[in-house]
Amino acid sequence: MSRAGRRSRAGAAAAVQLWVTLSCLTTAAEAQLTGVLDDCLCDIESIDSFNTYKIFPKIQKLLERDYFRYYKVNLMRPCPFWAEDGQCSIKDCHVEPCPESKVPMGIKAGNSNKYSKAANNTKEIEDCEQANKLGAVNSTLSNQSKEAFIDWARYDDSQDHFCELDDERSPAVQYVDLLLNPERYTGYKGPSAWRVWNSIYEENCFKPRSVYRPLNPLAPSWGKDDGESFYKWLEGLCLEKRVFYKLISGLHASINLHLCAKYLLEETWGKPSWGPNIKEFKHRFDPVETKGEGPRRLKNLYFLYLIELRALSKVAPYFDRSIVDLYTGNVEEDAKTKALLLEIFQDTKSFPMHFDEKSMFAGNQKEAKSLKEEFRLHFKNISRIMDCVGCDKCRLWGKLQTQGLGTALKILFSEKEIQNLPENSPSKGFQLTRQEIVALLNAFGRLSTSIIELQNFKILLKNSR
């Protein structure tokens, strides 16, 4: 056989081997993301089907309505734990915003920034400008919307609230149109982003500091395969503490999925193009690239979906009452919004394999009460850490999804109060603010979207083999 022929056969054999390897990797990933989830009796396939055909179309339609598209948030609160805000993702580049008096409320300066002396590399400066530009919040609101918000606030203030929401009443709080600020890639990454998530995991997941979560570059053991020892420790915890870790991990996975699915692919003539980035997805979730950690993260996403789904099914009686309306001032549209919401609640009730929250906090009453308080304090701390996110758009969605999950936990911890709600008068036992309602449904909408995006990535991976 000629040398060229041998080279051709060798090349063909290598191509076949590569195809087989990629096929095995994809098959391995799919095999690890099937079947029954830990700590509950629900399988992933049932969630996929239920979400795709029942929940996703309706939740998307609901979130486009005025009541749910506007979220009131304070993006100006300083980080209470460290000084660095890390707006720029590049190691030696820090972007300083213009003086507050020249910056619109809630938006950091885009083109009028000055750079530190350390930023002397053109590429780094360009990357910094891009991260700052993509991470800025679009606060465009019509005069009609602004006038409506005054009416909304007047209506909300007349309701029977029993807790003072300082943040909502701060002069720095503003309404943000979520449809103008979709969650997607912003360039916010690196040490600053890792520091935020590291603080959340290390300080709030009921674990000793000597035990590091897998693939944590800020841990002393970075580079070692400490996943097995970590999960041995996790399985040794009580159900409640395992659940808490899975909720945080699921939230992290969901956010990462959104960034992979709406990645900045290219920018031509000043117009960015967004779409799925398979390489980025594999970097975060592939079982080989993540040493088996990726599928665990995605399973925790499904677990979080079940928790928030359960909360929606439990809170339905609160909204069933005639006294509760979703006020925007347009009676006809408000009625349509509530009807769609109640329809979604009916769908959540029909799901046959809900997580059984009664298995949590079911032991000694005194210990259960103490553990609930720990949950509350840990979660409150996580919401404060979100004020340390250095990208405004990332901070917006981080705060919203954290509040949404916190509202879901509040619902699950208040079952008796919800069951005893009066039909025609405000309840002193259980109350949801407009912001909690908006956050709850938008957070669940993000999880629903994550599961859809995950199905899309599975198809893309198959087609790329």
Short description:
The chain is mostly helical. The protein has 15 helices and six strands. Helix 2 (44-63) runs antiparallel to helix 11, helix 8 runs antiparallel to helix 9 (278-285) and helix 10 runs antiparallel to helix 15.
What does this structure look like?
It comes from Monodelphis domestica (Gray short-tailed opossum). One of its GO terms (cellular component) is endoplasmic reticulum lumen. This protein has helices at residues 3-32, 44-63, 66-69, 122-135, 143-157, 191-204, 227-235, 239-261, 278-285, 293-320, 331-350, 365-385, 392-412, 415-419, 434-463; strands at 70-73, 95-96, 114-115, 174-177, 263-268, 271-275. It is mostly helical. It has one domain (35-108, 168-215, 226-464). The strands form three sheets. The protein has a two-stranded antiparallel ribbon. A two-stranded antiparallel sheet has the order 2-3. Strand 5 and strand 6 form a beta hairpin. The longest helix has 30 residues, at 3-32. The chain is globular and about 60 Å long. Residues 12-29, 87-120 and 157-166 have low confidence and may be disordered.
Keywords:
465 residues, two-stranded antiparallel sheet, protein-disulfide reductase activity, 6 strands, flavoprotein
Number of strands: 6
- Secondary-structure content class: mainly alpha
Kindly report how far apart the N and C termini lie: 31 Å
What is the global morphology?
globular
Into how many domains do the coordinates divide? 1
Secondary-structure element sequence?
HHHEEEHHEHHHEEHHHHHHH
Largest sheet: 2 strands, antiparallel
What kind of oligomer do you see?
A: single chain
- Helix % is 55-70%
On the 0 to 100 scale, the average pLDDT is 78
Give the strand content.
under 5%
Q: Report Rg.
A: 24 Å
